[in-house]
Amino acid sequence: MITIEIRKELKSGVIELAILALLVRREMYGYELSQKILDLSSGQIEVKEGTLYPILYRLEERGIITSRWQAPLGRGKPRKYYYVTGKGRQYFAGYRKEWNVVVEFMCKILE
Amino acid sequence: MEKRYLDYIDDVVSRIDTDSQTKNKIKQSLTEHIEALIEKHGSLAYNKLDPVEKVAWEFSENLQLQDRKEYSYPWPRRYPVWRRVSQKKIFNIPLYHITDGYNPETGEFEIARGIFAFGPVALGVFTAGGIALGVFSFAGISAGVLLALGGLSLSALASLGGAAVAGLFAAGGMAVSFGLSIGGFAVGHIAIGGEVFGEYIYKTTTGEGNAVEWFRNYLPYFVKFFQ
Q1: DSSP conformational letter for B106
Q2: What is the ipTM of this complex?
């Protein structure tokens, strides 16, 4: 499967929303998030570490997500799991509404 | 984790111009990310890594370091910015500080300050750049306690340059000192050159002057250079 490069202007908003949508469902660690996005986009959208982590840092600084270190069961190194805060859930709900409006508009205009 | 992965992480982080706290955060994230990659791909994980420059660039772009540079710097930037500051300090002064004059943390012009300081404006012990002030200075305009070299150089001990002013020894197109001056235009206690002014002088154009006597009395080894 060929991955596509998402331009910077699109990337910051879309990937941030995608990350939030995943984290609202359950907590995940960085690499897991990037793999999940790759899987759900059928291998087309690869979020590199240079994109993923700065978004996570920003969301965490703004109190939208938070994190905790957790060692996996059995062998393996501890991982930093991210999850959405109460404030983050509200933020996500608003973001999602905006997104739906934008998508509806863009679908019409690009038809 | 294998050394090659640690080197890779260090290399990426060293290319991102940000504060040490963010660098540590990036280092931690990359370490965790690569560990997960190794768990999944084993020894093939290294081949899955992007080139160091690309990863560093992407971090910089997404941390909005690039935008800040373009916005705040007075002339067009290229990447990467040349800025290295040693973590090692001697008397609370960084061992070295190399800068092209731009501090990405503040977005402002910065002076290189270190034992070894290199930059458009440098301050330290061994200094070099556009304007440098130090114990040993090499610059367009340099001021050195012991030695200054440059277009315009000023020193308590010795200066060499287009225009050199020193306490003890000056050499250059124009040389002025309280001791020995050598140059096209020389002023000093002992002055050697084309146009000379001093107590003991030697005109290289005509071979005239009483400086030879001084050298014969105090530094006879150098008399041969006047013959």
Answers
A1: T
A2: 0.82
